[in-house]
Each structure stands twice: as C-alpha cells, then as structure tokens.
Amino acid sequence: MPIQFRLYTINRGALAEFAAEWNAKIRPLREKLGFRVLGAWTIPATNQFLWLLGYDGPEDWETKDKAYYSSDERRSMQPDPARHIARIEHYVIESVEG
Q: Kind and range of the H or E element at 16?
C-alpha cells in the first residue's frame, strides 16, 4: 500500500484549530473516499502537523487524490481548513522493515 508522509507548517497560533478541523472534516472525508489515515501528530515547537495517509484501492493514487480534492464535499468545506497552512510537504515513504 502506498503511504504518504504529509507535513504541514501551520500559521502561528492556529495549530490546535487546524488539528480540530482536520479531525472533524478532512479525516472523515478521506476515509469515506477510501483512504486510510494511519496516524496524525502535532509538533507544537515548530507549528507543524504531520500525518500518514495510505491508499490501496483499485485506482492509482493520483486519480484517487484528484477525486478527493474535486469532490463536492471537499470544495464546499467552510471554513476551509487549508487557510491555516503556510507550507505543505508530501513524500511517498517506503518501509525498511523486511
């Protein structure tokens, strides 16, 4: 299963609010659309939010991710949790365990 490591730098003072909105809006929609959220954490010292996202369905990652962002539910999220994000980093990660 492909896994993405997602690291977001959050605007100063908005980490708790972003985490709450992510839990209430982003996570449930990702899971509804077939993704697996493997964990999420905050790094208060650096105003960062990191999470692991997996997908092992029949479609490729790019198609499924595009469907998420273009879904009516995602486009209509108000307020949009992304307003808190100053920087986004996404990396596909691979296990080194045998």
A: helix 15-21
